[in-house]
Write a sequence for this structure.
């Protein structure tokens, strides 16, 4: 029978800014088990809420304890999934997301974002999160609906790569900042090392496609996922599906190439799930597929395509 596990929010269960296949697991689970994990927001002391009473002690402890890595993100993990071997896929069913904080922050930072040369008056603002109402309120009064997701979901990178910074999304997933990866979505990640080495972090309260200023509403989240080894799937690249859509994912420093990756990926998904030829799948993507800019600020830019599963039906 599947078991449920929880990873407490203590420094021993987290890493700051670096993926590394050599890092030992913080938890070992069986395929099909569920895991609840806690994640702190990205950033450092400069982004903390100005009211000390609203900053939890475990976040301060993590900031004081964890050595700085190659990127700015707290990540919980890695989780070792028994039976996962290189060449498999790890199925990540996102079952639940809850807020750990009643605030989040948004920043404009030096040399980052989509328009770094135009926005040089750097600042961080804080928004109040009302989880019960499902809204956040920005300092100037705008209220937005919350739509939480983990910006980082990934497996450990290939061992030959050595330590890898958390900022740039790659073939193992990582900092994809894809707002579609929320409750009800299933993400499929390539496995490059025995056990997979699953990480999650970088909680976002709400984000627009593009994440243009460099941050979403950065906050702390608690998430529950189901981790399942898929030996029947062979893919060297992440993809996903929602209850209604297939989702292909492109990640590249060129937005054009990220778009091409997303189109090729969807063609492959359609051909895998139907009897359509590659030509027919390409035409279907042109009629029913929707390309979206995931993010433009993480080194490798992101484009994802959403295609309704209903469009796969044939007479």
């Amino acid at each position: 029978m599947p078991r449920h596990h929880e990873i407490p929010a203590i420094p021993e269960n987290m890493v700051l800014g670096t993926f590394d296949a050599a890092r030992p697991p913080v938890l070992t689970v069986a395929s099909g088990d569920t895991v609840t994990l806690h994640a702190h927001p990205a950033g450092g002391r400069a982004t903390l809420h100005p009211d000390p009473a609203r900053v939890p002690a475990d976040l301060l402890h993590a900031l004081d304890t964890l050595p700085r890595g190659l990127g700015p993100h707290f990540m919980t993990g890695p989780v070792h999934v028994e039976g996962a071997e290189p060449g498999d896929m790890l199925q990540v069913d996102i079952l639940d997301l809850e807020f750990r904080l009643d605030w989040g922050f948004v920043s404009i930072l030096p040399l980052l974002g989509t328009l770094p040369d135009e926005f040089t008056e750097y600042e961080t603002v804080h928004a109040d999160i009302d989880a019960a109402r499902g809204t956040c309120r920005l300092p100037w009064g705008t209220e937005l609906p919350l739509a939480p997701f983990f910006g980082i979901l990934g497996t450990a990178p290939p061992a030959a790569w050595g330590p890898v910074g958390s900022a740039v999304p790659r073939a193992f997933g990582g900092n994809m900042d894809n707002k579609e990866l929320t409750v009800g979505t299933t993400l499929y990640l390539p496995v490059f090392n025995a056990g997979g080495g699953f990480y999650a972090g970088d909680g976002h309260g709400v984000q627009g496609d593009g994440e243009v200023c460099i941050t979403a509403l950065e906050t702390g989240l608690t998430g529950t996922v189901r981790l399942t080894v898929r030996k029947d799937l062979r893919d060297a690249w992440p993809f996903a599906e929602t209850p209604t859509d297939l989702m292909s994912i492109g990640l590249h420093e060129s937005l054009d190439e990220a778009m091409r990756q997303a189109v090729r990926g969807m063609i492959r998904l359609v051909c895998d799930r139907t009897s359509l030829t590659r030509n027919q799948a390409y035409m279907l993507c042109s009629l029913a597929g929707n390309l979206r800019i995931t993010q433009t600020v993480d080194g490798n830019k992101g484009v994802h395509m959403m295609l309704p599963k209903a469009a796969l039906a044939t007479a």
Q: What stands out?
A: The chain has three helices and 21 strands. The mean pLDDT is 97.
